[in-house]
Amino acid sequence: MSSYELESLGRIMAGILRHFPERFNLEMDEEGFVDMYKLVSAIKRKRGDRMRWLRPTHIIGLVETDPKGRYQVENNHVRATYGHSLQLSMSLPTDNIPERLYFPTTPENKENILENGLTPGDRSMVHLSKTWGDAYEAGSHREEETEPIILRIDAESAQDNGIIIQRAGKTVFTVEEIPPEFISLADEEDIQLSKKEMEERRKDLYYQGPPLEEEAEEEEEEEVLEEIDHIPDEEEDIDDDKIDDEPSDEDLEGDDDEMTDAELDVEDDEMTDEDLNEGEEETDED
Description:
Layout: H1 3-18, E1 34-35, H2 36-47, H3 56-65, E2 71-74, E3 77-80, E4 100-105, H4 107-116, E5 126-129, H5 132-142, E6 149-154, H6 155-160, E7 165-167, E8 172-175, E9 183-185, H7 188-203, H8 221-226, H9 249-252, H10 261-264
Antiparallel strand pairs: 1-3, 2-3, 4-6, 5-8, 6-9, 7-8
C-alpha cells in the first residue's frame, strides 16, 4: 500500500469499527469484532474502484504496523480497541497499568472534574493517557488556542478500590469513570517522568510512533460522519468467497482518481473525553 492508501484505509476502518458498522451492513459483536472478510467486501462495495485492490492481508498489515496499537485481529475478526461511541462490553488487558495516568482538560472544566470526577459523555469510556506528554498532546489537538490543563489520575489507588482500568493501546487506557478522590493536578514531577518515558521510546527500536509534535490532528465528529452520509444505501453485494488473500497485478495498479477531503474525513487518532464529561459539548481518537 502507498502511504495515501494506508491513510485512507485507516480512516475508513476507524469510522466503521468505532462508530457506524451498520452503515456498511456489518454485524459487530459485543466485544467490538467484525468479520475481516466481510469488512473487506463492505469497503469495496462502498468505495468501488478506489478500493478494488483491498484484501484481508492489507487489513492485517495495517493492524500489525499501527504505531498506537489501535486495532486487534483474532480468528479472522478485527476490532478497534478504543475510541468507540458504540456501547460495547469489551474485554481488554488489565495488567501492567501504570501507577499514574493523565487526562487533559481546559481551565473552564478543571474545577468541575476535580469536584465531580471523570465520566464519559458521547464516548462509551473515559480515555486516559500514559504520560503527561501524551495527555498534553491530545489536549493540544482539541484546544488549539488554549493550553490544556493536565490532571493526574492515581491509577494504583483507583484499582485498589475496585475500579477496572484497561489497556486499550500503547499509550491509551480506558475506564468507565474515575471518582474525584483519585484526581489531582499534575506537577513538575509528572513532566519529568514524561520526559524520561519519551527518551525511552526513542531508544526503543520497536517504537514506530512519530514524535508527539508531529502527530496528526483529530477531526471533529461532524467531519467523521460527513463522508459516510453521502454513500448510497443500496449497492451490489460482492461475493466474499471471491476475495483472494493476495492482490493481483491489476489490483495493485490503483487508479488515478483523486479522493476529496470529505471522502477522507474519518477519524483515526486518539480521542480524549475532555468535553464529554458533561455531555454538553461536541467532540472529535484517540
